[in-house]
Amino acid sequence: MQPFALNYARPAVELEAAIPYVYDAGLQLNVLHDGRVAACDFALLREFGTTTSTAGSKTHFDD
Amino acid sequence: MTVLILTCEEDVTADMVVVHLNATGVPVVRVDPADLTGGVALSGEYVHGRFRGHLSAGGRLVSIGGLRSVWVRRPGVPAARAAQPSDWLTEEAAQALYGMLRGSDARWMNHPDAARRARHKPWQLRIAQRCGLPVPATLITTFPRAAREFAERYPELVVKPVSGAHPQDPPRAVPTSRVAPDTDFSAVAFGPTLLQRRITKRADIRLTVVGQRMLAARKATAADADPDDVDVRFATPGSPWLPVDVPSCIAPGVLAYLREAELAYGAFDFVEDSDGTWWFLECNQSGQFGFVEVETGQPIARTIAEWLARPVPVQPPHVNGARLKAR
Questions:
Q1: Are B100 and B116 part of one and the same domain?
Q2: Pairing of strands B213-220, B318-319
Q3: Which of B1, B67, B86, B323 has the most CB atoms around its CB within 10 Å?
Q4: A24 — contact with chain B (CB < 8 Å)?
Q5: Could you tell me the residue range of the domain that residue B225 belongs to?
Q6: What pLDDT, in 10s, does the model give residues B169-224?
């Protein structure tokens, strides 16, 4: 009784590494442990994939 | 005047825009509706024919009348983190927050009504057709026989979710996947199924549109790519995303799409075939853009910030709910 499309489903892949930044309500930005703004570190964003088209798919489907 | 951003804390993509707004001195208030009524509070008063409303978050207080724009990015479910969450409280919080915001003169990226409609993929396909964009032959059906007949006409097929949503119990991903011609389609009867002619692609295209500005990126398909790796989101990393011009035969259709959909922002997915034709797959009304900017250096976040920072157009006064013509 499984819908056809689910025959092609695969387990969701969760991020293995802990995200190295935390939200700062004062700045309204996520900051790294050394105080730098995470969004300005493109190498880090690329490494963790938090801006990719599958990020946030758990709660939103506007990939 | 202030830019209101409705999104969750972990949305680092929104941060990319906040950085630009901060640099230009535009006030920003960032709110996650999930934090109603903990870290977020609201109040609105309708008295003597006037409305005065306020939002408070993170120690910031903003007048709803003082909003220049509202960016709906990745908002949480209203009141989801309340002390005693419930479906009823969520509905109450949603009605209060979005109801008040709808009454403001702020510009929306994107308006909730337009956003809700724009999420429907079948509607997207029809709008794209009407706007003259090439759309691969597509079937959405619960009839196994219709699926079989479609597969006979188009032996090269893919299947994808109609909604784009992924099942959460347990968490699974449903990538766009190739369907073998001799597949048993009987399970089509158990859920609406979207089948689409597979375009043999030489590249994926991500076209991010902010207002009237189009920023396109192209990711070439490797010559030795596995033909079963249809979905670029789940394929092994290969060629980088690179900036590309939008073909003159596509650009008017894209802008017409956004006009008809009443969207200020859209992230379009196309595939480019061997003739160079861009085939429309979908338009994500709040699609991710950070990964494109990170790879291509295209100024998408800055363009969004500039759109959000524009002043609110001067509105003529209202009398008894009717808008007077400007003199």
A1: no
A2: unpaired
A3: B67
A4: no
A5: 111-136+199-295
A6: 888 989 999 999 899 999 999 999 999 999 999 999 999 999 999 999 999 998 88
